[in-house]
Amino acid sequence: MLKLNINGTDRNVDAAPDTPLLWVLRDHLDLTGTKYGCGVAACGTCTVIVDGAAVRSCAVPAAAVAGKKVRTVEGLAATSLTRLQQAWIRHQVPQCGYCQSGMLMAATALLEKTPQPSDDDIDRAMTNICRCGTYQRVRRAIKDAAGMTTPVAASGAAPAPAGLTLSTTLSTPAGAK
Ligand code: FES
Ligand code: FES
Questions:
Q1: Centre of ligand 1 from the C-alpha of residue 73, in Å
Q2: DSSP line for the chain
Q3: Which protein residues touch ligand 1 with a CB less than 6 Å away?
Q4: Which of 21, 77, 145, 176 is the most buried (most CB within 10 A)?
Q5: pLDDT tens sequence across 89-122
């Protein structure tokens, strides 16, 4: 039995110690916001935060995070959307959405360590792969959340459509879990 702290709550999980954290989150705890992409720590889709650091959960045995604080995309907005999530919506970052929870977690870890990141800081931290090519929107949203850019409406970018919420922009295609 593994004892893990996920999004501030202690959870007991009946899984083998070498089970990748990704599968413990998805299959044992039903936290399916963390996605599977490559399975070999290359794409970043499965990124979560462990003790403040962005970690690729497909490549971390669950036993390695026992006693540490694990945060997933479900834990970002306990009561309201974070500044970063709000910027994500303002800049309409997601396209298909599949990589976006990993992007958000990597960007959250970046801003917690470096509240005013340079382009180089963003390049170093945001190595996640997006097959839809949202990289420039990701960069703009990070800078917006950091208070480093003019508001999106003043820059001429289109406002988010009425009624658009993070859950709709990050929704998973029908049939996918
Ligand atoms: S699924 Fe973990 S890095 Fe690609
Ligand atoms: S938004 Fe489609 S893979 Fe990134």
A1: 15
A2: -EEEEETTEEEEE-S-TTSBHHHIIIIIS--TTSPPS-SSSSS-TTEEEETTEEEEGGGSBGGGGTTSEEE-GGGS-SSS--HHHHHHHHTT--SS-TTHHHHHHHHHHHHHH-SS--HHHHHHH-----TT--HHHHHHHHHHHTT-S--GGGGTPPPPPTT--HHHHTPPPTT--
A3: 36-39, 41-46, 56, 58
A4: 21
A5: 999 999 999 999 999 999 999 999 999 999 999 9
pTM: 0.86
Average of per-residue pLDDT values in the chain: 89
Which ligand is in closest contact with the Cα of 45?
1
Instruction: Give 103 Cα–ligand 2 centroid separation in angstroms.
Output: 9
Residue 61 has which token pair?
């045995």
C-alpha to C-alpha distance for 128 and 2, rounded to whole angstroms: 29
Q: Which ligand is nearest to the CA of 47?
A: 1
Q: Is the pLDDT of residue 171 over 70?
A: no
- Whole-angstrom Cα distance, residue 102 to residue 33? 9
